[in-house]
Amino acid sequence: MHLYSKIKCPNCNTWNENQDYCSNCNTLINYQLEKNQKEEQKKLEALEAPKDKIDIWLEKIKNSDSGLDKALYWALRSSWFLLLAFVTLAISVLIFGPG
Description:
Elements: E1 6-8, E2 15-17, H1 31-48, H2 53-62, H3 67-96
Antiparallel strand pairs: 1-2
């Protein structure tokens, strides 16, 4: 048994069977393919977007040859994780503690 999909072109109103592009006007009519293309385009735009100053600075000290810079980077990173762990613990005590 074959599954056929008939899609009407929004541009020229031509019915197309099992095609990604309209046979009449070559408009993209496969909505899943269109969605995938838009997602890929968003990913490319995100990669090409300029970075924030803090991101540039953190990357600079992460890749630095200086031991002091690397220690500063790891201290900042560790303190961020400790803060997140503390907030998670506080929220779970508030939710499950009073019981």
